[in-house]
Amino acid sequence: MSAEDERWMRRALELARTAEAAGEVPVGAVLVSMGEEQGAGANAPISTCDPSAHAEIRALRAAGRRAGNYRLPGCTLYTTLEPCPMCAGAIVHARVSRLVYAAPDIRWGAGGSVFDILGSTKLNHRVEVTGGVLAAESAELLEAFFRARRGPRSPSRG
Predict the structure, then answer these.
(1) Which of 36, 56, 128, 140 is catalytic?
(2) Does residue 14 have an active-site annotation?
(3) 80-101 pLDDT, tens digit each
C-alpha cells in the first residue's frame, strides 16, 4: 500500500462516516487526479430516494461537473467498498484509469470478487484495480453499522 493510496482511502473513510451519520450504509468515495480531489461522494440512496446515489456515482458526478466532461481519464477512484455492477459500469463509461477499494463485497463486488466488469475484455475500457487498502477499517465500519441496525442478538437467535 502506497502512502498516497492510504491518504486518499482515509479521505474516503471520512466520507463513509458522513454517510453513516446520516443513516446511510457507510460507503465513501473520492476521485483523484494528479494528487488533487476532483469529486467526492458519500452513500445517499435512502435520504435521496435514489437507488443510483451510491458513493462512487456521486463522486463521478461531482468530478464530471468540475471537469465539464463525463470522461475522466487519468483519474483514480478510491472507495471503501468494492463497487457493485452499476458503479463498475459507470466507472468504465467514465474511463477512470484506476480503482482502489478497501473491503471486498462478496455479494455484489464487480471489481473481481463476484463479477469482473472492470477487467472485462468484452468492454472497450479496462480499469486497473487494487483491493484491500485499509480493508479491515472499512469492514469494521460496515459490520458495526449492520450490527447496530439489527440490534442485539438473543441467544436463541444465534
Answers:
(1) 56
(2) no
(3) 999 999 999 999 999 999 999 9
